[in-house]
Structures are given as structure tokens and as C-alpha cells.
Amino acid sequence: MEWETVIGLEIHTQLSTKSKIFSAASTAYGAEPNTQACAVDLGLPGVLPVLNAEAVRMAVKFGVAIGAHIAPRSVFARKNYFYPDLPKGYQISQYELPIVGEGQITIELEDGSKKVIGVTRAHLEEDAGKSLHENFHGMTGIDLNRAGTPLLEIVSEPDMRSAVEAVAYMKKIHSIVKYLEICDGNMQEGSFRCDANVSVRPKGQKEYGTRAELKNINSFRFVERAINHEVERQIDIIESGGKVAQETRLYDSDNNTTRSMRSKEEAMDYRYFPDPDLLPVDIEPSFIDDIKQTLPEMPDDKKNRFISDFGLNANDADTLIASKELADYYETTVKFSGNETRLSANWVIVELSGTLNKEGIELNASPVSAQMLGDMIKRIADDTISGKIAKQVFEAMWNGQGSADEIIQSKGLKQVTDTGAIEKIIDDIISANPQQVEQFRGGKDKVFGFFVGQVMKQTQGKANPKQVNELLRKKLSS
Amino acid sequence: MHNKTIAELSAGLKDKQFSSEELTRAFIERAKQFDPKLNSFITLTEDLALEQARQADQRIQAGDNTPLTGIPIAQKDIFCTKDVKTSCGSKMLDNFYSPYDAAVVEQLNNTGMVLLGKTNMDEFAMGSSNETSFYGPVKNPWDLNTVPGGSSGGSAAAVAARIAPIATGTDTGGSIRQPAALCGITGMKPTYGRVSRYGMIAFASSLDQAGPLAQSAEDAAMLLNAMAGFDTRDSTSTELAVPDYQSTLNADINGLKIGIPKEYFGDGLDAGVQSAIEEALKEYEKLGAQLVDIELPNSALSVPTYYVVAPAECSSNLSRFDGVRFGYRCENPLDLEDLYKRSRGEGFGPEVKRRIMIGAYALSAGYYDAYYIKAQKIRRLISEDFKEAFKKVDVIMGPTTPTTAFNIGEKTDDPITMYLSDVYTIAVNLAGLPGMSIPAGFSENKPVGLQLIGNYFEEAKLLNVAHQYQLNTDWHRQIPGEFK
Amino acid sequence: MSLQKEDVEKIAHLAQLSINEEDIPGYLEELSKILHLVEQMNAVNTDNVEPMAHPQDSSQRLREDKETEINQRDAFQKIAPQVERGFYLVPRVIE
After folding, report:
1. How confident is the prediction along chain A (478 residues), in pLDDT tens digits per residue?
2. Which residues in chain A touch residue B121, judged by CB atoms under 8 angstroms apart?
3. Would you say residue C30 lies in a domain?
4. For chain B, which domains are there?
5. Could you tell me if A349 lies within 8 Å of chain C, comparing CB atoms?
6. Do C16 and B337 touch (CB under 8 A)?
7. A265 compared with B407, residue with greater pLDDT
8. Hey, of B81, B198, B305, B361, which one would you mutate to test binding to chain C, going by the most C CBs within 10 A of its CB?
9. C66 close to B (CB below 8 A)
10. In what order do the strands lie in the sheet with A130-132?
11. Which of chain B's residues have a Cβ under 8 Å away from the Cβ of A87?
């Protein structure tokens, strides 16, 4: 039988506010355990939540960016369950009336085709703390620093039909929240996390199969693997006559398996009700308008602009807009290069990204700044150096030897463009290699490369290659 | 000194008739002498009180005082007090020394009031007789065989016996007004949002409100001046200027329209209580007020509605007591579930467990609409009834309670009869209105309370109306014989 | 409606409360009585009534995004049942 996979994602993005959603404690990552858990975060008796304006603004920003309905009135509700990393015994979330309603995300697949994925809703809630199971002599240690960090949970429709689509959707959301600067997107630190609802059904069947919720997926690679693994598991169960259970499964990236956490039917009665400590959140139309006015350029718009204004091809544009930092880097490079849009794209994509990758360095830690790279590209464009020499210059800049101009100067890398000087070298080479001249004139065009090489060797690569080509052709055929 | 109101004590301190230290020692001595009979305090903070009293004396000396500087006060043990045991009447918090002060405590400290101690209360404020306290029942100073009411029973008994000149309480369904009535003192529940709830251990968040338990309306006004106000730490606190409640006490009440709801005078109202209330209303007529018959048609549903709303909220509010970060933890838990279940099972008393279970049930899948939503809808109807009534009248009056103080143990076997003792007070909390109870005579030597209900944020009017009555009667001046 | 013994057990589990076996009949009776009281609400038709979750008809006030809390871990953990190296300890959690 042919099977169809049905996937819906719940993406949890930690909003990059300074303080927590309901308290004035810091949200910074990596502090000593429980040093950023204040009375409110600990749920001490008598404390009360007060909503952070910035969290609301960020949620609305996301909603506006995806063209979603913004609820004029949304309500915080309590989701009741007991867990040690949930100090109050309930999570403050939004249930019946979320702040962001239906919206849409368009994803692009590898074959270039596009697909619209529905966003059901996005709601604000508080993050839980962390449980550590190692090194507590058989007990569990609880760190509540993360408790109360604002989360925007973005819930999709079950519109994805493959792990690849799910990854494309997740990457798209990732780039949107980073473009909006509402989430740092750091998946290792858990700022961007994903749960996947996965089910399978015979192709052509209308009803959805029973779904499993995969938790704890914290990289794009794992999303794909976890979903594919789960799909196989479910098909195996059904094909061997079994039934898929509705349950929560934990993805184990070490072994690339999922295992059952708890059965959904059992015990999970969250008893949602409006939080009586918080009043409804009212959003004025003027507030939404203000956000619309100040919304940064979104990835799709940027891509289109890179293609139409900068003359890039779709592939290069895609690569450059993949992250806002890279796109910003690229645009700065272009600016300093004297508007060398394609040359800049090439350098950013090939040399810069390649070197960062090889060295395992993040873009924001690059020793070569966008301005430095732009300045260097300008020297390629004005024929001060050749593209080949530029690689040397780039390497020297990477190693901290100064700006492009300083390096060109100190290493004497300036291109030789004096026609007379080059002609002199060519004449010498021609007279020193009569045999090769013979061969060339006899129709063996390949030998031309030999002459270019000789000239470059003599000039230590500093001769303008275009000029060398022209002069050689002229001399050899005369 | 003990038979003086705080208005009188304030004048005495100002005129240097006595120091705050002398005053404080006098009340501590009274507490040591009389409280063993009453059990109104859970904690006496003698050392702290004397230290605060000496500081108050310095402030008075320096002229840096408020009318409340140096006046001793008893705080209900529901308010978090830094480094002082804050038990909420529960075994669960018997070991809880709060690391912070509640807003109310902070504000009263700032005025220079002196904390005598923390008063006994029904466990987590759930009760109407003070019998659910982990620390044992409080006795009513008017008759030691009877209850003082609840949940602010300790505060009411302490003020009635003049062990404390004034006290704080909280009122979720009548927990200030009912014990004030049963103990023959003056109590006020302000409008929801008037006093910050920050640091007040939550029972039912949409109903809880703190207020004064005092000897007179004037005293209540003085304390409310210091308790009320906007607090950024409480999202439900109202950003509205606090009037000087003392300054309007003497406003003329001639022509005042008093609404008399017929539903508050029906079956179940004790005849002795009824006649005392009718006498009080006649007194108001003498003062120039006009009695107007009104209807509050849904008031009979206030008790059933309350017993969905309050338990639902409490079932969630009390989830934080799990034996992990503070409070009681069971011995040798086998696993996490055992830790939760036994810490909570052993730490909470039966009434608290009953209410948590009712609340969990009312919110659970399949019952939410039938119970919780239904209750919220009736809550609106009850609230609308008051809105209609206040189109016609300035205040509403009736009995605070259907009977006078009942015997200890009389209603403990049947939660329903206990719940019905709050039948006249609960609707006010559901609507969020301000309400008061003032002494209005006796029935068989036990105090009767007259309830005054005002429109939103009209505390000043209630206090004025109550004060005018107290200028013409001396019920509020009565002190139980044993404690004179 | 009246409850069954299993209902009481289920609710107690939901609320994470241990209840002695011998106390169950008492709870069963009392909870049933309370539910019976509560069901008086059914006497009123509320079809077109908007639920009222809160006595105030106003909207949530927002707090400026400022970090003002300081580390008070020592004070907070002084009152904790069991801590180690800054962590709260609980019996091993199996996920």
C-alpha cells in the first residue's frame, strides 16, 4: 500500500526580551542554577504575574509579518499539571483566545515549487525550568532560571506531507523570527524548539491517522530524521496489523529513535481556565498599524529585491537571505565594494561562507568584516588586483594582517598594468621558448596556457590576466 | 489603653500621653494574658514589635509620623511577612518563613505601624468558623463555646477582645464581614482591586480582597487609607487615586437611599438577628435616610455559584504547594508522585482537600461547561442585579449573617450548612463590590452585624454611612465582659 | 449528580492528593452533597449570558521590559526542603 505522511508542527520560539514574560528577572542564558529565578518565577505563595509589554509587541510583530489575524482581545489561561520544572503547578498560556490567529507561510521546495502551509495560531506562554538527571545521586535537580521565559508557540495546520516539507517550514519560521529580531534562533540553547505531530494514512484516504507527538527536536537535521523514523515506525505497526497509539514520544538523537513518554489519554486533563490574576489583553488597531509601519523587510521580499535590483540568480539570493545576518553582511559588502552586487555575492557565498564553515566560526565572529571584504572587492573591480591575488589578500585579512589596501601595499600585490612592462616579459618568454611558439602557431592552441602561466610566474601573478591574454595573442600571431 | 480606638490612640501618641513602646507592651501583655483562652494568634512577634515601637517613637519624636505611626496591628497570617512565619493556618506552611513582605505589610510598615503578631485563620482562608485551622479553633470572646466566624476569625476575636486595637483580614466570600458580625466589630471588604493582593496568599484570585477589622468605622477608614492604593505588582489592582476616607466620615446622610433586598430577609434568617437589623434600619430612618425595597433576584444562587468559582480557582492556586521549593514535604518519598501526593495529602486539611477536589472536578474535561462556565454566567447575572439596584439606591443594607455565632463543632460535620452561613456575603465578592459589617446590637447576648453594600469604589460612602450610625449608637463600644 | 468511589479516586489523582482508603466514603458523601448544592445553578437559564471570569471589566496593564530582579537564591533556598549546589532536588524524574 502507498502511504501518505501528515505532519503538523508546534514551534516554540523564545522571545528575546530582556526580562521574563511575567516577572522582572533576567532571561539571559547560562547563569548559575536558580540565580535568575525570582519570587514570581518560583511561584512563591502570594506572588502575582504582570505581563511584559515587549513580549506582546513581539507576538504581534510575528502575526503582522505572516499576515495573520491579530486578536483585538486575547486571554491568558492556566494549563494545570504537576511537574517539578513547572513551579506553580500550572503554565500560564493562551488557550481559547490566542493573540495571533490564522496566517500563512509559503515554503519553497528543492524543485522550486511552492507550497502554502497554514498557521493555525500563535500564542504567548511561559517556558518551564529544566530538570537535570545526572550527578544528583539518583535524584533530579531542578533549575528554574528558564521558568517564565516568554515563548511564542506557533502552531501549524497538518499541511506538510514529508519530512522535507517540515524542515523547509521550520527553516522558514526560523528565518522570519530572526528577521523580526524577536528570537535569537539559537537551537543549541533551546531558543527555537519544535514538536512534530506525525501520522500516516493510506494515500487517498480523507481521515487522518492516529498521530504521535514527537518532542524535543532541537535541530533541522533531527526534525527530518525523527519524522522519517516515526513514519517508518507507524507504517510498520499498521502493516503488521497493529494500531498506532496516540501518545507523546521523545526523540533520542543519539540513537535516532523515538520512545514513548506518556500516553495522551492517561492523566492529561489540563483543566484550562482563564487566569484570574491576569486581565484580557486588548490590542488597539493603532498598535498594529505602528508595528506594520516599522516592520523590517521579510526574507521573501529581500530575495525578490536581490534578484531584481542586484541581478542575482534565485539560488544565490536564496543562499544569502537564509539568515538575516548573512543578508546584512552581503548588503554591507555590496555598499563598500562600489555596488559590485554579483562579485560580492560570489565572494560572500564561496570564500567567506566556505572559510567560516571550514574554521567552524559563526558569521558574527568573522575576522573579515563586511566592510573589509567590500573594500577588497572594490580593488578587484578597479583592476588593482586580480581575482586570484584577491584570494591571497582575503587569506591575509583573515589572519589579521590588516585591510586589503594595507596588504596589497605591504606585499606588493598591485597588479602590473603597464603594457610596456608586460610586453617586455612576453617578448623574453617568446624568444626563450621557440619550440612552444612553433607548436602554437602550428595550431596547438593548448600551449597558450603555458605562455599565460609563464607570464604569471614572471610577474608573481600580478599581471592583469585579461591584459596578458590580449597581448599574448597579439604577439604570438604576429 | 486597650479600650481606646486607634483614632484615640493616635491622638494619645501625638500628645505624648504614652509612647508606642508602652502601648505595644500593654497589648503584648494582654495577648499573653488573654490569648490562651482565645487562640487568636498563631505567632506573637514580641521582639519585632518592640523594635518597631521604638522606631515609631523616634519618628514621633522627630515629627516624621503619620496618624498610624506607633499603633500596634495584628496581621492575618495570610499576608507574607519577611522572615516571620506565614502559615496561612496550614500545616503545609507551618515551616514557611516568607522571604518577602506582602504589599499590605510593606505599606503598613512604611506608615510606622507596629506588628503585634500573625492571627489565626481558617486553613488557606477556607472556612466560616475558624475551625479548619491547623492551629486549632479560635474562640469567640463573647461566648467561648462559640466560633468567631471565619476565615479572619483570629483577627476579629483579637480586636473584639481588645488584644489588638486593629487588624487586617481578607474576604473571599465574607471572611472579613462574617467574623466582624459574629464578634461585634467593624469590618470592611473594599472593592476588588482597591487593595493590592501582592503577597497575600491566594485562595480565589478573582474574589480575594484585603481589608480592615476595626473597632469603629473611623478606625477602619484610617487603616484603609494606608492599605488601599495602586500596585504595579498586582495586575488586578486598580489605578485610581485613594481618597482620604477619614475626611468624608461626617458628611450628611440626610436623604440617603438605602436599598433593602427582600431576599436577605427570607427563610433562614434568625428572628433575633432580624429584629436587631430592623432596629438599626429605624435608626437610619431617624438620621434622615429613606428605605427603598429592592430585589436581588439571583442572590439565592450566589452560594452554589461561589462553590464552583472559588474551588476552581483554589484548586489551581494551591498546586504550587508541592513540597519542592518551600513548605511541607513528606518523609521519604518513594518517587515523584509519592512526593506530590503525600506532601499535599498530609500538608492540607480536609476542607482544603475537599475544595481542591471540587475545583479540579468542575474544571475537568466534560464538566467545564456545566459547572465552571455556568457559574461564570450566573456570576454575571448576580452582578447585573446589583447594577440595577444601584440605579435606584445609594447603599444596600441587610443582615451580614443569618444567625449569630454558632457553637464550636456545630457545623463541622456538614459542609453545606457551614457554607450557607455566608449566604448574604458571597454575592458581594462575586460582583467585586465593597461591603461592610458593623455592630448593630445583640441577640441572646451575641453580637449581630449589619451589612452595608456600596457601589464600586464607594468605600468612602460606606464608611461615612457607618460612622454616622456609630455616632448615634454605642454597639461598637461594647467589650465582652471577660476582656474589659 | 452523585459521584462514585472511582470518581473520587480520579479527582484525587488529578489534584495529586493522597487520600486514605477509609476516608473515601466521607469525601464521596461530602463532595456529592456539594455538587448537589452547586447544581441549583441549573434552575436558571443562562443561554445568552456572557460568562464573567473577573469582576473588573478592564484590560491587562503591561509592564515595561526591564530587568530589575536581583539574585536572591540564598534567601529563597533557605526555606526549601532539599537543595544541592543551587538546584532543588526531587526524587528522580523518569521521562
Report:
1. 899 999 999 999 999 999 999 999 999 999 999 999 999 999 999 999 999 999 999 999 999 999 999 999 999 999 999 999 999 999 999 999 999 999 999 998 888 899 999 999 999 999 999 999 888 989 999 999 999 999 999 999 999 999 999 999 999 999 999 999 999 999 999 999 999 999 999 999 999 999 999 987 888 989 999 999 999 999 999 999 999 988 889 888 888 888 888 654 455 799 999 999 999 999 999 999 999 999 999 998 999 999 999 999 999 999 999 888 999 999 999 999 999 999 999 999 999 999 999 999 999 999 999 999 999 999 999 888 888 889 999 999 999 999 999 999 898 888 777 778 888 888 888 888 888 888 888 888 888 888 888 888 888 888 888 888 888 888 887 6
2. none
3. yes
4. 6-256+392-483 (3.90.1300.10)
5. no
6. yes
7. B407
8. B361
9. no
10. A130-132, A139-143, C87-91, C83-84
11. 320, 324-325
Residues in Cβ contact with B241 at an 8 Å cutoff, skipping those fewer than 6 apart: none
Quote the pLDDT of residue B430.
98
Distance of CA A119 to the CA centre of its chain: 19
Nearest residue of chain B to residue C42 (CA atoms): B374
Q: Answer for the pair B186, B6: CB distance below 8 angstroms, yes or no.
A: no
The domain of C21 spans 5-43
Confidence class for position C10, pLDDT limits 50, 70, 90: very high
Instruction: Please name the residue of chain C whose CA is at the shortest distance from the CA of residue A150.
Output: C65
CA C49 to chain centre: 26
CA-closest candidate to residue B326, choices B88, B116, B154, B136: B88
Q: Does domain A419-477 have CATH number 1.10.10.410?
A: yes
B357: nearest CB among C11, C53, C90: C11
Interface contact A89-B365, CB threshold 8 A: no
Please tell me the total count of domains within chain C. Answer: 1
Domains of chain A, residue spans: 3-288, 297-410, 419-477
Phi, psi of A264 (to 5 degrees): -65, -40
- Neighbouring residues of B292: CB distance < 8 A, sequence distance ≥ 6: B257, B258, B259, B260, B392, B393
- Chains with at least 3 CB pairs less than 8 angstroms from chain B: A, C
CA distance between the termini of chain C: 37
Non-local CB neighbours of A446 within 8 Å, separated by 6+ positions: none
Contact by Cβ (8 Å): A277, A309? no
Q: Is C20 in the A-facing interface, judged by CB distances under 8 Å?
A: no
Smallest Cα distance from B246 to chain C, Å: 26
Neighbours of chain A (3+ CB pairs under 8 A): B, C
The catalytic site residues of B sit at 76, 151, 175
Residues of C in contact with A82 (CB under 8 A): 16
Judge: B364–A269 Cβ closer than 8 Å, yes or no.
yes
Across B443-468, b (16+ Cβ under 10 Å) vs e yields: beebbbbbbbbbbbbbbbbbbbbbbb
**Structure-derived torsion over alpha carbons of residues A128, A134, A139, A145, reported in degrees to the nearest 10:** -30
pLDDT band at B180 (very low <50, low <70, confident <90, very high): very high
Please judge whether C63 and B348 are an interchain contact, meaning their C-beta atoms are less than 8 angstroms apart: no
Q: Is A90's CB within 8 Å of B316's CB?
A: yes
Q: Specify if C50 maps to a domain.
A: no
Closest alpha carbon to B202 in C31, A90, C60: A90
Residue B417, chain C, CB below 8 Å: the answer is: no
In sequence order, the 6+-apart residues with CB closer than 8 A to the CB of B389 are B259, B261, B294, B295, B296, B396
CATH number at residue C27: 1.10.20
A42 touches chain B (CB under 8 A): yes
Q: For residue B446, which amino acid is it?
A: K
Tell me if A47 and B236 make a contact (CB, 8 A cut-off): no
Across the A/B interface, how many CB contacts are shorter than 8 Å? 101
d(CA A338, CA A340): 6
